[in-house]
Amino acid sequence: MTLIFGVPIQALTGQLMIGLINGAFYALLSLGVAIIFGMLRIANFAHGAQYMLGAFVAWFLLSIPTLFPNSGLPSIGYWGALVVAPIIVFGVGILMEVLFIRRVYRLDHAYGLLLTIGLTMILEGIFRVQFGSSGQPYQIPELLRGGQNLGFMVLPYYRVWVILVSLVVCFATWFMIERTKFGSYLRAATENPELVQAFGVNVPLMLMLTYGFGVGLAGFAGVMAAPIYQVSPAMGQNLIIIIFAVVVIGGMGSILGSIISGFLLGIIEGLTKVFRPEASTTIIFVIMAVVLLVRPRGLLGKVAK
Amino acid sequence: MTATTLTTDPTSTLATRIGWEKIALLVLLLLALIGPAFVYPLFLVRILTFVLFASAYNLIFGYAGLLGFGHAAFFGLASYTVAQSAKTLPITPEISLILGVMVSAAIGSVFGWLAIKRQGLYFAMITLSLAQIVFFFFAQVGWAHGEDGIQSVPRGYFLGLLSLSDNTVMYYFVLCVSVLGVWFLWRVVESPYGEILKAVRDNEPRAISLGYNANRIKLTAFTISAGVAGLAGGLNALSFQLASLSDVHYLLSAEVILMVLIGGAATTLGPVLGAIVLVTMQNYLASLGAWVLIVQGVIFVLCVLGMRNGIVGTIENWTLRQLTRSEG
Amino acid sequence: MDLILETRDLTKRFDGFIAVNGVNLQIERGTIHAMIGPNGAGKTTTFNLLTKFIQPTFGQILFNGRDITREQPENLAKAGIVRSFQISAIFGEMTVAQNVRVALQRPLATYMHFWRPVSSLRSLNDRVDSLLEAVGLLEFRSLKAKELSYGRKRALEIATTFALDPELLLLDEPTSGLGHEDVDRISSLIKSFAKGRTLLMVEHNLSVVSSLSDKITVLTRGSVLVEGDYATISRDPRVMEAYLGTGHG
Asked: What domains are there in chain C, each with its CATH number?
């Protein structure tokens, strides 16, 4: 058995794999939060609950025959859920924006956070009432089951899939926002809505779609999470706080910063778990504190006012 | 573009001050004095500790204009400190309370100093993250016993003389300390320092241009707030003889914000009313389990959308409109 | 020349855009000095540099011969420099009287004393009232500052600025957003308060500039174009071109 720094190599690579997976989710989720914060100046605390919603919708779609046995509707498996669930969650996001979020744009930014805290409580509460604290089962899709034993590590197919998809989605989104014409309209609309509106662009619509998109990303992450994490009402709870820290470290409102920090911090967390397991729960927050001391604007953020 | 201020100070714009707030506080105090005769004392104790906690939070939220989202850390730090010291050290309860306050104030000054480096929402996110470090610390460290918490905390003898074992005696002790705490916070606000604090809240660049070190001003408020929050946490641990993870959970941080929001920020009466409303509601809905979460969420949303000045602010505005209308 | 404020090669660069480019200012003691120029000329940035709200990329700022380039903004008031803001900066939730009193508290050592009663500030009340009277706001002393009309908010800001009895006043567009009457009132207030002090102001209103200032610096695209009194610069064709060229006046 090979040892690296006194740790068996399988344990090290195993934790690295887990770290990379976690990092993929951190990146995907903080991407959504960074977009919503950067564009709408809303600290979307509900992001964790919306992620949970995505996972539950996936489970729901899978369980249609058991929940509605007389309807004759088929079960929608993982691949269908990957498309349908984010759209449903996107729809919920649109609803939230129209009913609630848009009313606080003109207020002090604090109210955006307070509002989304309240919405989180409602969302989580509803699912808790229905499902308690227990998790619902969700299988890894057949195509991606199993893994490849490389000797020094085992490479589970599903987890590789998650990492690859996250990378693709993250960078595709970043590209769309930072490098395309549409993205530049979006960025302009959030910096100077009156001016952009004068050019005939429907700013309220853009804001609504932006929030919906960010929420849809959370829902997408939820579907991806369903087979490997427990589908339970509390699954987004502690996660959202980590996401906020990741966004601060990456530089608030910096999309690339969030993506890079997400992956990086996931890996660091995984490594910490190997060498100093007690510290793994708080390492990200400690790093945030250090970043604040050394570089308050975050990795890729703009200079703080 | 400057954002609108976070809170409005609902003091009357008329030359004559409406003293109804002071009357209401007096009435509440009188009710509190006779309370145990009608209501279970420990239920009232819970209200009092949260009155103190909410009032402490109001100092930074309402008067310093800081949206802290990690205040449970200070409540819990003191709670665990008091619980552990009361159980393991040969000290009287007031000494362990003082220890608790010192710990929360000390950590408060460190967290505050870190968080003040960024403004607005960043401040909220940073305080939240720092509070999570505290949460995980108590979830993992051996002597805090994780999910079980520290149980059977002895109430001891106040000044070595008065036994606090009786619930009614404990209640009056907590009442005295809470009243003193709320009075102390009121005094901080109504002081030369308080004037500068409110100025920094209203327009920080202006205050700086007049020569004030805004960060130092805000940090002082944050430290005092953390210390008094610790006093509340310590009282809680002694009264219920338990320190648990719910004392450091972020849900508690959210609840204290809700209390101040319901009652009305930047007022003395507001946090008092908010705490009464929230604790009472939680108590009566306790049997409904997760519905409490939904109800709290709905109240949060309603307050943010329709009642940002809380109960006190809404009454003030309504009274103001009546008065100006009658003046023609 | 008795220079109260001097800048040497003052430069500020933002991510590739040079807002202030090697500006050399010489403000003589006891004068009213105006900084004008079209929008985007770098006036407000220069102002923020002088008042230490932003740090220069390069260059020096000297106050009474002392280098204040790295000074913290809150230390300027003690040194004798007080600024005003482009959008009237007052403490909205506090009363008019409290606004002025806050300014007067600074020299007192007690402003950190959170255990003292606010009534201990009673000794300042007379001075508060006399300042309010000078700007015509005495009758509003108990009104919340945010309830004042914009012109009166400006007057309040002037009162709080002068409350500190500064050697050097830095006023950022003191008459912006004001109607005719208010402009005249604020102008005359500035003129009377400026006696025996030095004043540097950024202004767009050229009639105010012409009636008040002894010397004018014209900024365009981050650099000093020309300096002189109103008669000199108003006849300079380059000034006309700078304004018309950018489409602003």
From this structure: 3-245 (3.40.50.300)
